[in-house]
Design brief:
The chain is mainly beta. The N and C termini lie far apart (about 40 Å). The chain has an eight-stranded antiparallel beta barrel with strand order 1-2-3-4-5-6-7-8. The chain is globular and about 50 Å long. Helices cover about 15% and strands about 50% of the residues. It is built from two helices and eight strands. A hairpin with a 5-residue loop joins strand 1 and strand 2.
Amino acid sequence: INSIDNMRYLFMTLFLAYLLHPAIAQDSSANKPNTIYIEGLGIGMRYSINYERQFQIKESNWGFSLSGGIAPNFSEPKYLWFPLRLDANYQIKNSRIGAGVNYMFGYYWFHSFIHPEDIIRSTSGFFLPGINYEYQFENKFVGSIRILFVDNTKDYKYSYLARLPFLDLELYNKKFVMWPGLAFGYSF
């Protein structure tokens, strides 16, 4: 039931973003609103490949961005996660700072191939707040740093921290962790 509620919140967020799209005009100064980037650590746990679309509020430095991606892992444990982000941003020249919500859903698989039983058994999702800083280089490349705030006050076995790749960090006793992400991409 929890994953169904998470999906409802996700679809509600995407629907509201769709409704806001005609009301927010794209600023002519935001000439590179699309970005494809690879993120290490971050919401993909180990890595993720993402696409981001930036919407700038006309005659303002404020805007928001929507992004989605894929975070596969083909070694043990095998998983396929889909990270989604909604960020509010403030742009100053080539820099952009922002805060928002991240949603991660997906599943682990236990067979040699993706099996329907694995999807039913291990599907879950997580909402994680985060902050970010992004810098647009002159040659259309983008670098960013993101911090996710992971709440571990719930059952550890099913938490986001239990899925992080570093088992030796002994994160079990910590109730709140800041998880970093470093991304590099190309804007167009």
